[in-house]
């Protein structure tokens, strides 16, 4: 049984990672033991422990690490604190989930990646779109049925309402880029463009990414009054259509629909958005049943690409 602890009991963790770990525990009680949660706000930590089934509560990280037997730690903390916290935790050697983006910018991610290489600590960056059920099924179908005809074109769209924060194109947009690259492969070049939206400092953003397999086009529209997120991949004689928010997948091969899948009704949001899959992959990796993925080196390529798109113009991507 894998013993999991959590650092941070804030709103993001409560919305996704807490419910995901509770779901995994309820689905397979022998798979995971939820040993402890740590937050500087003791009341938040207690509510988190009660709501999601964690055994112990701490307000001091060093004390939790000293007193608990921990096989894996999820550090779901505010982005401005990520570099400081992960720099402290990676040398401890406990397998680690790091909240995305891995630092405030690519430079911070790069520094963390160097610490990870020096320590050799197994880790993942929390980029849950890779683990969305429809996206997982899409990658599996391509690997099984189109290994000799990989996708040559990807088209991804993130449509949102009233997302006017300065960091949207990188802190949230990294999800769109990263999930696309999980199918289209390593980024090599970027051409970005930004058209002013109706709010000051907000842009309709487009990026054309040259990858090792082909071309990926990403569109981030933060103030268009709708919540949608979709991914399409095209190869010889087939098309793959992922609707992330509806958690559905359609695949056409040689003019025939070969997959028409929709998530079962009643599944919790943490399952639908891939957080359950992400945390299960972390547990599997700890037990040697799969890789720790994506790593800080993987997330570095994604944040470099997202930053290049936001900057506009032409760029070469080098991790």
Would you write up a description of this structure?
By secondary structure, this protein is an alpha/beta fold. It has 2 domains: 2-127, NAD(P)-binding Rossmann-like Domain (Rossmann fold); 129-316, 2-Layer Sandwich (Dihydrodipicolinate Reductase, domain 2), CATH 3.30.360. Helices cover 38% and strands 29% of the residues. It has helices spanning 11-15, 17-27, 42-52, 61-67, 79-89, 106-119, 133-145, 168-184, 269-272, 275-286, 296-311; strands spanning 2-7, 32-38, 56-58, 72-75, 96-99, 123-126, 153-159, 187-196, 203-211, 215-221, 228-235, 238-243, 248-253, 256-262, 313-316. The strands form 2 sheets. Strands 14-13-12-11-7-10-9-8-15 form a 9-stranded mixed β-sheet, covered by helices on one side. A hairpin with a 6-residue loop joins strand 8 (187-196) and strand 9. The longest helix has 17 residues, at 168-184. The two termini are 36 Å apart.
């Amino acid at each position: 049984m894998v013993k999991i602890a959590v650092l941070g009991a804030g709103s993001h963790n409560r919305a996704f990672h807490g419910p995901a770990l509770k779901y995994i525990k309820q689905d397979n009680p022998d798979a995971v033991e939820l040993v402890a949660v740590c937050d500087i706000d003791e009341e938040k930590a207690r509510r988190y422990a009660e709501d999601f089934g964690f055994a112990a509560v701490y307000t001091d990280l060093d004390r939790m690490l000293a007193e608990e037997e921990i096989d894996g730690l999820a550090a779901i903390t505010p982005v401005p604190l990520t570099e400081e916290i992960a720099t402290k935790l990676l040398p401890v050697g406990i397998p680690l989930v790091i909240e995305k983006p891995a630092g405030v910018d690519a430079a911070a991610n790069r520094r963390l990646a160097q610490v990870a290489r020096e320590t050799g600590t197994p880790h993942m960056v929390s980029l849950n779109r890779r683990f969305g059920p429809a996206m997982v099924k899409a990658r599996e179908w391509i690997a099984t049925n189109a290994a000799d005809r990989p996708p040559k074109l990807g088209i991804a769209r993130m449509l949102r309402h009233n997302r006017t924060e300065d960091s949207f194109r990188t802190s949230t947009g990294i999800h769109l880029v990263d999930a696309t690259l999980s199918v289209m492969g390593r980024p090599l070049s970027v051409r970005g463009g930004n058209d002013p939206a109706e709010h000051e400092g907000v842009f309709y953003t487009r990026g054309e990414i040259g990858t090792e397999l082909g071309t990926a086009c990403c569109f981030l529209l933060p103030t268009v009054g709708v919540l949608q997120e979709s991914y399409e991949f095209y190869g010889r004689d087939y098309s793959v259509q992922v609707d992330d928010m509806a958690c559905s997948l359609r695949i056409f091969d040689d003019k025939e629909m070969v997959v028409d899948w929709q998530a079962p009704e009643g599944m919790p949001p943490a399952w639908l958005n891939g957080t359950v899959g992400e945390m299960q992959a972390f547990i599997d990796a700890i037990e040697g049943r799969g890789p720790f993925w994506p790593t800080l080196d993987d997330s570095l390529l994604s944040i470099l690409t997202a930053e290049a798109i936001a900057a506009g113009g032409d760029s070469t991507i080098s991790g």
